[in-house]
Records
---
Amino acid sequence: MRPQRLEDIVGQQDLVGPGKIIARMVAAKLLSSMILYGPPGTGKTSIASAIAGSTKYAFRKLNAATDSKKDLQVVAEEAKMSGTVILLLDEIHRLDKTKQDFLLPHLESGRIILIGATTENPYININPAIRSRTQIFEVHPLSLEDIKTALNRAITDKARGLGQLDLHVDDDALAFMAGATNGDLRSALNGLELAAQSTPPDDTGAIHVTLTVAEACFQRKALIGDKNGDAHYDVISAFQKSIRGSDTDAALHYLAQLVAAGDLPSICRRLMVIAYEDIGMANLPAAARTVQAVQAAQQLGLPEGRIPLADAVIELCLSPKSNSGIAAIDAALADVMNGHNGAVPDHLKDAHYSGAKKLGHGNGYQFPHDFPGDWVQQQYLPDDLKHAEYYHPKANGRFETQLGEQYQRLLRANRRR
């Protein structure tokens, strides 16, 4: 079911949809090397395959960890003969220096269009020499509707899917398959294929896949009340909103649903988001304790992991709440995204290299630790933003109240008010 054209790709429409960057690159035939990073089964290989199919360029796939420099040489020779080859290099974060040095001139010449695929953060795990010659795009877990669309295509496609079978999949079974893999389409398709091939046909030759069959093939139970495609994410949403609303019993109920479904990854990720998004500055020690509880749960696994998770949920529910942290960073991001970056003041610029002084970099900087109280009045924001205030403290807990008072004192002392 691998897509052959960009139009066939399910999900990732912010990259491949009409008018979006990869679609524009393909339409203009101005491809550049790129790195796609994100969880397994989210479409990295599909995007590479569809780009090749849409441009009619030769498409080759190698693995940076297991394939040798000789394999890269074969691709390079083919590129010299055919003009351009699209190379999907899986696990690009494991590319060693020898292979990297061989690839670099071919990337610069444009003979090889590299599409690197990785589940690791490329800004941390990929060599800067490769990173500087590629565009980096993040792919995200697919939505339930995206996965249901792809599963229905596989059920009806007679050439590449299961359309040659008289296959009937119940709505609740399809919804379960879509939600059971946390956005991993490959796993969802594998589960569908197993269900279809392992279920004996009835007297009429029809294969009937029920929710019970789907659960057996995915080795996971459906969430309680999971009768539609949105149930899984509805429970996660209700879990966060119950903690935000300080309803301990409701939060424990939704936690129990997620524990019963065995969805430890979603619980852990969501709890850490909640701790810093909804409690945050009002009780940062509780946020830190939540991270410890999550780490304990991951070490213990389920069912024992439910104990530290429950402790964290109870504390977060009963803690004062504040979203001032996320509001502050989003306000700052809005300025940056709208082009209000501003130049770094000269006295704050790096002065640790020869010639910096001649440029005026670092001149006039006052080292706070040389002054009483380790503080001195000076400007840190760019001139165009010197009056900006992104953080607006709340007074829902003693912790942030005290920080807020200090924030206001520093604003007044620095004459920004």
Note: The domain at 231-318 is CATH 1.20.272.10 (Zinc Finger, Delta Prime; domain 3).
---
Amino acid sequence: MDPTDAATAEITTHTARLRWQCRRGMLELDLLLSRFLEVGFPALDAAGRADFVRLLGYQDQILHDWLMGQAVPADAAMRRLVGQIRAAMRDDAAVL
């Protein structure tokens, strides 16, 4: 197998895994996280991508509170990422 094909297959598998992890118990979170995976995740650097994976490990209610602006993450990297996701939401809403 060509190394480029192998790398592409690995990225595709990783993205599919993340897409599955974006499926949550709350429809709002499903939509927000899945949309960010499509539009925002590709633009993140390696640290930002690792932070997104870490973010997906939080409970739904915590994520909901952060993304709806009802609470602020204590961790600086999570604050930055939540801000990016919220900005992507606003940008999407402006396009509609």
Note: The mean pLDDT is 87.
---
Amino acid sequence: MIIDISRLLNTNTPTWPGDTPFSYQLTWSQEETGSVNVGQITTSCHTATHVDAPFHFKDRGMTIEQLPLEIFVGDALVVDVTTKGEITIQDFDGLNLKDVRRVLLKTDTWTNDLFPETIPIIDPELGPFFLENGIELLGVDLPSVDPLDSKTLDTHHSLLKNGVHILEGLNLTDVEPGLYRLTALPLKVEGADGSPVRAILETL
């Protein structure tokens, strides 16, 4: 079974305050061309479900087309942290992380079409913890892995330092904790700081 964990893109899709809103419109209609409809999309690279490239928060970081695709395809562990105001290493106590390379955090904080006013804190110490346990991708159902008002982006930088890539804006509302196969490939956009993705989970 395939579970779509992407947020819908339309004119109501919430965008980071001040960022470019999503829009789709027809450039040419079938009536005008006599054969086809042709549309155009305008959006931020960080709207809805998306991958952050390191260049997003580090001038000399890798851009989106330079990221290894195998990071975004493969088994992923969904971890339920819906009761947590702060997510720390202790939330992984008792979980078997052997052979797990991708972790998705289910917070259920962002379950509507409004940009959240507050989100759980993700402890930067998860960076070295993930490195120690061989985890190379962190996905969240949040607009960011850092507090919304953060300027230092400590968790972004900690994850990067420890070789952990970032997938944000997931929709995990209907997903039970457990192991799945994830596919969430970014677009091959030269020089980009991020990319929207169509993220899916497959039951194993």
Note: The chain is about 10% helix and 25% strand.
